[in-house]
Design goal:
Length: 547
């Protein structure tokens, strides 16, 4: 659940620290007071795109941080995978925006990408905005809603893996068939090029080694003279060092203070002798023959020719060699390869069909259970005669299965079932969305559900019913609702007020938890837009609903 939210220098918020409770909470405030800003700050924590324009004017950065507690297996698995596990299930997410446009995102102090933060955010909080019910007008979302409510992704994951393998095998078959259709002339050309490349027997870095050796040979006389002169000097120096060491060794037996100097001189003498031996060996390696020089130049000429013809480097020529080899292999063994691929495609098709049937059966079972749950919730939400069905119909296999999923409703008695997007009003869509969330919430998912004015367009008994359902839903998870309806606000365990005021010549938005008289006044404002005696009296009577 969401425990705390801290915001600094975000739009109209200069400083905000707010603690949230378990159960059902509501957030209210006048239009333009900053409710959407508060939601924007929370969304930033949950992985929304950062916008430097959201930094409060005159500041260099903005920050939003939230503390969550969770016992969800999926959340714990995410934290472990990203080495971000906290103490006692506590999760601290921090997001800052710099005026340069850069964003810093951490989970329990571990830097993460925005995409990773968005993944974690979806596991922690499920946000339904005031326009979310419009997604119900798009049939493509129904299958995803059904699969999410079923809360068993293993079968769908298996199907998607098989489908991906199946499509890949078909693509490979088509590619090979296309390669086999290439003309004999092209095949002969590739065979000729491969013969040349094989004959060249190129090795990575070989040209650089040859050029380095040729450089040494071209400077051979100078190098021999230089090394020989150095050897002469070192022979004299080595002899002198050895003699000096022997003298100091004898003297140190009479004067112990000379032992340290003798010990320092010994490794110098040894190093000098080692350098002498190494230089002798290197001098002998500089010798070369005219045959070697000719061989090196000839080899370099072959390499340069291959580089010019096949990509400009030894590495690219080697890649081209392997490419020709593979293409010719496909042409030579094409029929056998196609036969093997055909068998593989057949097996994948059979397995895909089997898993697809299992997935369809699981969806139909889940659809029956979810339909019944949603219908019952709709009855509680002031639609007592509504019928609701989730239809699962067969379609050609696709990446998400072999099913078309439709949400069907008959809002009133005597009406026939028809697609939701064709027969439900705006207020009904809001209640359908709440019913779906309530039913899916009972099966697991995010531990915090946030509803942003999905009650828009409702009133009277419908608003009361929505308030009751939100209250019931909070028995199993944390529910936070941004609302304008007093019927919903009075049913909350905690009430937060967003207000806007002037401070030091600037406009500031803040959020506080209200109780007692302050809550009565805000409820009265929600009722009538004022805090008159009548509206206050009505507010007090509503607030006694849960007493």
């Amino acid at each position: 659940m969401l425990e705390r939210l801290s915001v600094r220098n975000y739009v109209l918020i200069d400083k905000l620290d707010i603690e949230f409770r378990d159960g059902f909470s509501v957030i209210t405030g006048e239009t333009g007071s900053g409710k959407s800003i508060l939601l924007g700050a929370l969304s930033l924590v949950l992985g929304a795109k950062a916008d430097r324009e959201a930094i409060r004017k005159g500041e260099k950065s903005a920050e939003a941080a939230a503390v969550f507690s969770s016992s969800s297996d999926s959340v714990m698995a995410w934290l472990e995978e990203h080495d971000a596990s906290g103490d006692d299930g506590e999760i601290i997410i921090r997001r800052s925006i710099k005026e340069t446009g850069r964003s810093l995102y951490t989970v329990n102090g571990i830097p993460v990408s925005r995409k990773e933060g968005e993944e974690l955010g979806a596991l922690l909080v499920d946000i339904s905005s005031q326009h979310a019910h419009q997604t119900l007008l798009r049939p493509g979302v129904y299958r995803a809603m059904l699969d999410e409510a079923a809360a068993d992704s293993s079968l769908l994951g298996r199907y998607r893996t098989l489908y991906s393998e199946y499509r890949s095998a078909i693509s490979e078959r088509d590619r090979i068939a296309s390669e086999m259709e290439k003309s004999a002339e092209e095949r002969d050309y590739m065979a000729f090029c491969l013969s040349e490349l094989d004959s060249a027997a190129l090795k990575e870095g070989e040209d650089e080694e040859i050029e380095e050796r040729l450089g040494i040979i071209s400077s051979a006389e100078f190098l021999r003279e230089s090394i020989s002169a150095a050897l002469d000097e070192l022979r004299n120096g080595s002899s002198s060092l050895s003699e000096a060491f022997s003298i100091l060794d004898k003297a140190s037996r009479k004067d112990k203070e000379l032992e340290a100097l003798r010990d320092r001189l010994e490794p110098v003498s040894i190093d000098c002798e080692d350098i002498l031996l190494t230089l002798r060996s290197h001098l002998s390696s500089i010798d070369f023959s005219e045959a070697e020089l000719e061989e090196l130049n000839s080899r370099l000429s072959v390499i340069q020719k291959m580089k010019r013809r096949f990509g400009g480097s030894v590495e690219s020529a080697i890649r081209k060699r392997e490419e020709y080899r593979e293409k010719l292999r496909v042409m030579d063994d094409g029929e056998e390869i196609l036969s093997d691929l055909g068998k593989r495609i057949g097996k994948l098709c059979d397995e895909l069909e089997r898993v697809g049937k299992d997935l369809s059966a699981a969806r139909k079972t889940a659809a029956a259970l979810l339909s019944s749950s949603i219908e019952g919730t709709l009855h509680d939400l002031g639609m007592p005669d509504a019928l609701f069905r989730i239809a699962v119909d067969p379609v050609p296999a696709g990446p998400d299965g072999c099913d078309s999923v439709s949400f069907m409703i008959a809002p009133n008695k005597g009406e026939k079932l028809s697609p939701v997007q064709e027969s439900a009003s705006g207020g009904e869509l809001s209640r359908i969305l709440l019913a779906i969330k309530a039913s899916a919430g009972k099966k697991g998912g995010a531990e915090t559900l946030l509803f942003d004015e999905i009650d828009a367009g409702l009133g009277g008994n419908s608003a009361n019913a929505v308030g009751d359902e939100l209250k019931r839903l909070s028995d199993g998870c944390q529910v936070i609702a941004i609302t304008h309806l007093p019927q919903i606000a009075v049913r909350a365990d905690a009430h937060y007020l967003v207000r806007k005021y002037g401070k030091d010549g600037r406009t500031v938005s803040s959020t506080i938890e209200i109780e007692g008289e302050e809550r009565e006044k805000e409820t009265a404002r929600l009722l009538s837009g004022s805090t008159s005696g009548i509206s206050l009296e009505h507010a007090r009577s509503l607030l006694k609903i849960d007493e």
